[in-house]
Amino acid sequence: MKCTRCRAPAEVQLRAHNAAFCRPCFVFFFQRQVERAIESERMFGRGERLLVAVSGGKDSLALWDVLAELGYDATGLYVGLGIGSYSALSHQKAAAFAERRGLPLRTVDLENEGGLAVPAVAQVTRRVPCSACGTMKRHWFDAAAIDGRFDVLVTGHNLDDEAARLMGNVLRWQKDHLARQRPVLVPTHPRFVRKVKPLFLTSEYETAVYAFMRGIDYIVDECPNAAGATQLVYKDALNRIEAASPGTKLAFVKEFLRAAQPAFAAADRDPPRDCERCGMPAYGSLCAYCRLVDEMQRRATPRASAPA
Ligand code: SF4
Ligand SMILES: [Zn+2]
Ligand SMILES: [Zn+2]
Fold first, then answer.
1. Ligand 3 centroid, distance to 139 Cα (angstroms)
2. Which residues contact 7 (CB under 8 A, 6 or more apart)?
3. For ligand 1, is residue 119 a contact (CB within 6 Å)?
4. Counting ligands in written order, which one lies closest to the CA of residue 287?
5. Rounded CA gap, 94 and 88, in Å?
6. Residue from 121, 165, 223 whose mutation best tests the ligand 1 pocket (most atoms within 8 A of CB)
7. What is the pLDDT of residues 107-153, one digit of tens each?
8. What are the tens digits of pLDDT across the range 226-276?
9. Angle formed by the axes of helices 159-171 and 230-244, to 10°?
């Protein structure tokens, strides 16, 4: 197998792209693919300040690496979820990467933010951990972006994440979610910044290969809560379809964005208002985070027993 670009022996084959690459050409191809997504979707420009949400995993660290290589002003944001040794190790990986590359990293530790670590919140509110985690991450990503006066919040969601999310949204026809499933979300509230996903057309396999070739030391273990997540069932189904018909995931996401997403976006609900308590965007009187905190406090406080 020869490299599609330079005819040297190829190290990696990408069936969805009908191409194969040697190591230097793959690194070039990957970075160029990310750059093209940024430019074609007008995600951000050179003068803007980016806050990159990093989990210590391959996707977010590969993305941060590409952004730094392309010369963007990219600061990392690590949110410590308090999920035992998984969180400790993922923080270590993110911090070590930042130090080695000389990149700035901000850290928010949920246990220090009122003792709201994911396992405790999930247990007390009886939510599935990923639901509690999602609400908390979204809140702290938004808050950190606003507090640090960043222009853009960048996340490492890749093609596999987007295809699985799309499949879940379509299977249940979640119109609200489909209306907001885009690689660029423009702010609909003064306390939202633009949100972008530069890896939305880049497969998980490609980011894994890129991370390996660039010597990025990332956390390989999945979060222990991932095992029960429905997202993995969708990913597995999509991987089987992809094996039988390479390029399906890419077409699924691309064609949705081109042909169907605008119709959902046009019918989207009203923009959020201010949360009455914290001022963050809210679709009711309180934002999702304040509602979660309330629920946590209500359940954690034992009711006074009735007098005899
Ligand atoms: S698997 Fe669930 S709990 Fe773990 S980091 Fe992801 S969303 Fe959070
Ligand atoms: Zn080559
Ligand atoms: Zn609030």
1. 9
2. none
3. no
4. 3
5. 10
6. 223
7. 999 988 877 899 999 999 998 899 999 999 999 999 999 999 999 99
8. 887 889 999 999 999 999 999 999 999 999 999 999 999 988 878 899 999
9. 110
> Which residue has the CA at smallest separation from atom 2 of ligand 1?
130
- pLDDT digits over 178-223, tens only? 999 999 999 999 999 999 999 999 999 999 999 999 999 999 998 9
Q: Does residue 232 line the site of ligand 1, with CB under 6 A?
A: no
Q: Determine if ligand 1 sits within 6 Å of the CB of residue 216.
A: no
Tell me, using a 6 A CB cutoff, whether residue 53 lines ligand 1. no
Q: For ligand 1, what atom is nearest to the CA of residue 130?
A: 2
pLDDT at 246: 95
Claim: this prediction has a pTM higher than 0.70: yes
- Distance between CA atoms of 292 and 269, rounded to whole angstroms? 22
pLDDT of residue 269: 73
